[in-house]
Amino acid sequence: MSQEIVRQDEKKPESYRDRVPVLSPPVDIFENEQEILLLADVPGVKEDGLSITLEKNELTLHAKREMEEEPGSVLARDFHEGDYYRSFMVPQGIDGEKVEAELKDGVLHVHLPKSDGLRPRKIQVKAG
Questions:
Q1: 57 found inside a domain
Q2: Is 14 domain-assigned?
Q3: CB-based burial of residue 37 (10 Å sphere; 0-12 exposed, 13-18 middle, 19+ buried)?
Q4: Which pLDDT score is estimated for 77?
Q5: What is the pTM of this model?
Q6: pLDDT score, position 10
Q7: Domain assignment of residue 68, given as a range
């Protein structure tokens, strides 16, 4: 049995230099009685370049970083165009309808509020 090799359109192979690097942003996670707070460092990202999804128990962050600084500036010299991507498994009991995010000075703040059932409560003890 012979196999025929079909020749595709000859295209230039993708160059490594043509691809946009994907970086895993550094993240700090804090928890208190009310919420889990996630802080992700995403310098060079604008609000319209952010995508945050919470599906089932997986939180996914995807951000596009496009450099518009003048050549020779500190930002253009130290940072390159690229994407950020990171995903996390979040515990059950997060109120997905109330998740909020804000971007301040290159730091993404994601607030994951706990549902009432997950929050600690004080139990009154009755003497008998």
A1: yes
A2: no
A3: middle
A4: 45
A5: 0.70
A6: 53
A7: 23-113
DSSP string, the chain: ---PPPPPP--PPPPGGGSPPEE---EEEEE-SSEEEEEEE-TTEEEEEEEEEEETTEEEEEEEE---SPTTSHHHHH--SEEEEEEEE--TTB-GGG-EEEEETTEEEEEEEBPTTTS----PPPP-
Whether residue 56 is contained in a domain is answered as: yes
User: CATH code at 103?
Assistant: 2.60.40.790
Cβ atoms 69, 86 nearer than 8 A: no
Q: d(Cα 35, Cα 43) in Å, to the nearest integer?
A: 25
Q: pLDDT tens for residues 69-128?
A: 555 555 544 556 778 999 999 988 898 899 999 999 999 999 999 987 766 777 788 887
| Rounded (5°) CA angle 97-99-101 | 145
Q: Locate 116 and state its tokens.
A: 């009432």
Q: How many domains does the chain have?
A: 1
Tokens 């928890």 -> residue: 31
Q: Answer yes or no: is 75 within a domain.
A: yes
Name residue 110's amino acid. V
